[in-house]
Amino acid sequence: MTSLGEQIKNRREELSITQQQLADKLYITRQTISRWENNQTVPNLDTLVILSDLLNLSLDRLLREDEQVVVNKMSTDIRLKQRYQRWLIISGLLLLLISGLLGLLSWGRSRQDGTIDRFNPFLPYKYGYAVLPKRTPTKIQQEVSTDTQGNIIN
In the prediction, which pLDDT does 25 show? Predict the structure, then answer.
């Protein structure tokens, strides 16, 4: 069984195409073709379809003769891309949420809105105090009550 890289190299040599010519048709670099032929990397699925058309090889033959190595590599790449995409969406939403919260706090501060300012963690707290005198003067008022005849009531 021949590997994917060997199949690409053998078919390219049968068709008398240089690595540079094949790379130009695929819009990639010559070094990428070399890495494929040396089994260091594998082409992605889109490029593999175009490559099979250019080299007149069936995809079935390209993929099955390599004992599932290429298929496993591609499925791993797809899973990693999906994980990266999920992470990117979550981090984007989190960034949007934080930006919205900071915008709301800034807007509340500029409008001097006490309801929003109450929850703004960036506003400094100001504590004040008053010093009471050591002795507070008190006035004692004495009231005198009298009844209807003018007698003092205690």
Answer: 93
